[in-house]
Amino acid sequence: xxxxxxxxxxxxxxxxxxxxxxxxxxxxxxxxxxxxxxxxxxxxxxxxxxxxxxxxxxxxxxxxxxxxxxxxxxxxxxxxxxxxxxxxxxxxxxxxxxxxxxxxxxxxxxxxxxxxxxxxxxxxxxxxxxxxxxxxxxxxxxxxxxxxxxxxxxxxxxxxxxxxxxxxxxxxxxxxxxxxxxxxxxxxxxxxxxxxxxxxxxxxxxxxxxxxxxxxxxxxxxxxxxxxxx
Amino acid sequence: xxxxxxxxxxxxxxxxxxxxxxxxxxxxxxxxxxxxxxxxxxxxxxxxxxxxxxxxxxxxxxxxxxxxxxxxxxxxxxxxxxxxxxxxxxxxxxxxxxxxxxxxxxxxxxxxxxxxxxxxxxxxxxxxxxxxxxxxxxxxxxxxxxxxxxxxxxxxxxxxxxxxxxxxxxxxxxxxxxxxxxxxxxxxxxxxxxxxxxxxxxxxxxxxxxxxxxxxxxxxxxx
Lengths: 230, 223
Hints:
Chain B: It catalyses: a CDP-1,2-diacyl-sn-glycerol + myo-inositol = a 1,2-diacyl-sn-glycero-3-phospho-(1D-myo-inositol) + CMP + H(+). Two copies of one chain form a homodimer. With 230 residues, chain A is an all-alpha fold. Chain A is built from nine helices and no strands. At the A-B interface, helix 1, helix 4, helix 5 and helix 9 of A face helix 1, helix 4 and helix 5 of B.
């Protein structure tokens, strides 16, 4: 009697975390992304809509987690991994349809590198989220992470820019510079959107570079502190 | 006096950045940058540089232990360089082969499995994701328990991707066609491809297990 009820409780507790509302939203995000990338070449618009919905869910599941008091480590990890993979896949596809493709390969490298180093430094310093950067000395860093709306704008700008680039790819010209240049010169609503996105994207990439340096310093500092302790 | 106190921490930080294995790490990054810059114009140079970088990956670990210069920064630099170089090679393979989404999926699996493994390593207080003493999965223990076998699977993956890139022909972009015709040739290349495919398959299976099982044990129980 005692044995079986003791066995059930941890398993039920585990199961209940997997069934948290925000985590179920997380599974929906994964499914949306799989389906989106499955149709990305055959139906660009459907792909973009699904990708964008998944991105919106990213914000919703965080809100749900706080509202329903269902914050979980698993949920945060699921979120981060889904983000990284969906951005990586979109950049991979952009590198196929544009020349020079290596631009997007480099952006992929920067995305992986900066987030990986940031995750490491977050753990080493015992913070719970890489967004809690209270003691960083870099001004742009503090401005970026200090203002959640600004940070949100930069993140959204990146995704929107990549989606727009995928949607407007010209069959005549694969040249990235040409396509971006002509879309800006149009003077249309699209031009404004592209310009706005480019600005936020640029800031995010600069922050990514700074993040790598800061996080590397944290790793080094961690070793020095460890050696100093008896 | 105060100056001495100020320079000491900075010097110590600098010295970690100048550790021999970390300098090898920087060389790896440079090799990869040059390699990928040349990858379409000179496939062979790309493959040689990529392979040298991969060999350096083993060397810098050995140097770190030999010169007592093991550092967290070095381990992270190593891991990040690995992840990025594999990711970039997979992206390029997705460009030259059809269906490209096969390599995009492998990229997703690589990122997902390594990311989840890093998280669970930290959350369970281990220092190295290769220390899997209390894992319950048998294939996991077999893989991580035998360093030679693990090394073979990792090398097999990189070799397979490099070979696929080198033999990508202009006649057929179809991945299945190229692999099948190579294996059927009955040449040393066929043998190499078959060996690599086997090791690659095991590594991807391990990756899938990591995504489905490790996160279960490493993360959920702690939330």
